[in-house]
Amino acid sequence: GTGPDDGDRRPRPAISFELFPPRTDAAALALGRTIDRLAEVDPAFISVTFGAGGSSRDRSLTVLRYMLEHTDVEPMAHLTCVGSSHAEANRLVREFLDAGVTSFLALRGDPPAGAGPDTGLGDLRSAAELVQLIHRVQEEREPFGQVGIPGIPGATRILDRPRPERVAVAAFPTGHPRSRGIGQDVDVLLAKEVAGANLAITQLFWHADDYLGFVERARAGGVTIPILPGIMPVTTPGRLARLQELTGVPAPSELAIPLEIEPDADALFDLGVDFAADLAREVLDGGAPGLHLYTFNRHEAVLAVLDRLGIRTPAHAGTERNTRER
Ligand code: FAD
């Protein structure tokens, strides 16, 4: 090799991050700084979660607009369709497209706690229907096919069908909590691809085999879109327990126990970062197309993971020790 990135180094895997909309003005300020730091590593996109029931639509849009106005990063908007009518979902997609967002993570979402299995589900019954709707709204908004050229009477040109940059969907390596089995999760993922999804992003998982085994089953089942592994460095025992509650994915004892017994904050940080970096290395070695890092709105731990993997450039690296999360 000749360049600095040659030799036995692989091309850098695609990196992406996930954030959630801040709940306070102070958190919003801190998030701007976090986004700036994440943008420095040139991620493929940064996604912003969407509160169930549409409660945080405006707050999601604020974060997405910040990215559009202050960074070169492609913003990706999570959208959920549970509880919305066709008209509402249409309006929602339009509003994000009008703001300049062209990448989406299409989710069904969860019905409000306590709701019965069929109450409040709205018109759209699955993430696949939302994927179709995003494509339809995008097509209706922009002309395609044979269109006139303004100012030149009679002249026409062929415009390609406009496409959103990315329409991503969720995938569940250890099964969705409501799933009857992994086979069903593969079927649902395939249905989302058929509907027009061009990327899958996984729920958290704690063992590389969960991800690699799921990808193998998905490929055998006919899924061809890239499946990005979702990985979160978890640096406190409380957060690990909370994630188990939120995702239904059992926390791994080989991380939970060391986090429980470690009293020192710096050592806790290293435990969580090392675990995530090891997992990331294993899935990349197994063929993962990139890494989607859950940030919990902090840049320190995810950037430290990239440092451990040797993915950041030296100019970016080595600055996290003094600013790490306590
Ligand atoms: P789907 O993919 O449609 O279904 C999930 C699973 O449910 C399937 O794998 C299958 O096991 C089962 N299932 C689906 N359809 C059927 C059927 N017809 N019959 C029987 N079983 C079926 N939630 C939010 O509110 N906001 C967010 O921003 C958000 N971001 C997320 C990001 C990622 C990467 C992930 C993995 C999840 C996120 N979620 C978010 C959570 C998501 O809303 C929940 O997982 C929800 O329960 C299902 O949505 P889905 O799009 O995964 O559904």
From TrEMBL:
Keywords: FAD, Flavoprotein, Oxidoreductase. It holds the Pfam family MTHFR. It catalyses: (6S)-5-methyl-5,6,7,8-tetrahydrofolate + NAD(+) = (6R)-5,10-methylene-5,6,7,8-tetrahydrofolate + NADH + H(+). InterPro entries: FAD-linked_oxidoreductase-like, Mehydrof_redctse-like. The keyword Oxidoreductase applies. Pathway: One-carbon metabolism; tetrahydrofolate interconversion. GO terms for molecular function: methylenetetrahydrofolate reductase [NAD(P)H] activity. Its cofactor is FAD. This is Methylenetetrahydrofolate reductase. It comes from Agromyces indicus.
